[in-house]
Design a protein that fits this description.
Layout (H helix, E strand, L loop, with lengths): L1 E7 L4 H16 L5 E7 L3 H4 L5 E4 L5 H9 L3 E4 L1 H5 L3 H17 L3
Length: 106
């Protein structure tokens, strides 16, 4: 199962709303086998390695970018989804990351 994490500053409103929209997108497009979790920015260093895609609301710092790169985790800007302003671009990046993961046999 592919795993996506959405993170914002507090892990409550922004990340929860964005995670819900991503879940709705997958449901609308009949995509199965993907879990979407919301968390706060502070927990990411300890849990990021458990995920395949990191959707950020709070822009990642250098430590998180390096951690994502080391663990081959795709990093996607979630602000368009959160703001509902051209969210298709971010959805496309998420789908592409999942396709790349599948092609790599992960």
């Amino acid at each position: 199962m592919a795993k996506i994490v959405v993170a914002c500053g507090s892990g409550v409103a922004s990340s929860e709303a964005t995670a819900s929209r991503i879940k709705d997108f997958f449901e609308t497009n009949n995509v199965k086998g993907i879990s979407v979790d919301a968390t706060d920015f502070k927990q990411l260093p300890e849990i990021l390695h458990n995920y395949d895609v990191y959707v950020w609301i709070a822009k990642p710092n250098q430590q998180l970018e390096e951690l994502a790169k080391e663990n081959n985790i795709a990093v996607v800007n979630g602000m368009p989804i959160f703001m509902n302003m051209n969210p298709e671009k971010s959805y496309k990046e998420i789908v592409q990351a999942l396709n790349n993961m599948q092609a790599a046999g992960r």
